[in-house]
Amino acid sequence: MGRPKKTKINLNKNSLQDFMQEIYNDCVNVMNSARKELNERKSRAEIEDINDESMIGKVNNDTLKIIEGTIDRKLALAKLQSQIVETDNKDTETTTNDGGSLSDDDKSLLRDLFKEQKEKNNIDYDLD
After folding, report:
1. Cα–Cα distance measured from residue 116 to residue 23, given in angstroms and rounded to the nearest whole number
2. Is the dihedral of CA 71, 73, 75, 77 positive or negative?
3. Which of 84, 76, 67, 75 is nearest to 30 (CA)?
């Protein structure tokens, strides 16, 4: 069993990085299970007519959309994390501020990620 999910999120670098790591791990798990299902489906498929091929194609397309969505989330996390590290580096050059600042787009992305995780895991996150 994995470690417990983080439900209290402080808008600071360490708390956000922990939360982003959880999202990244969830994305990896979803992507791996989708790939496994896709590969199993390919090996089991017994196509007898065009309808079978059409049905398998639709299911495979849905699976590929899931994989694409997880890749998009992982890229968004990487972008966000690089911006947090970049602003933290700028802050440490001028002051010893640990908070860092986020743009409105970054905050919007974080809200979307919190909302997705809340709906997916039925966990109410407490934001500070």
Report:
1. 10
2. negative
3. 67
Report the candidate in 32, 27, 103, 92 with the shortest Cα–Cα distance to residue 19: 27
Judge whether 12 and 99 are in contact, CB under 8 Å: yes
What is the model's pTM? Answer: 0.57
DSSP tag of 122: T
The DSSP call for residue 53 is H
19 vs 31: CA distance, rounded Å: 18
Structure confidence by residue, pLDDT tens digits, 23-79:
888 889 999 999 999 888 888 877 777 787 888 888 889 999 999 999 998 888 888
Structure-token pair, residue 60? 């495979």
Cα separation of 124 and 5, whole Å?
11
Q: Give me the residue label for tokens 């090996």.
A: 43
Could you list the beta-strand ranges (E) of 3-121.
Answer: 8-9
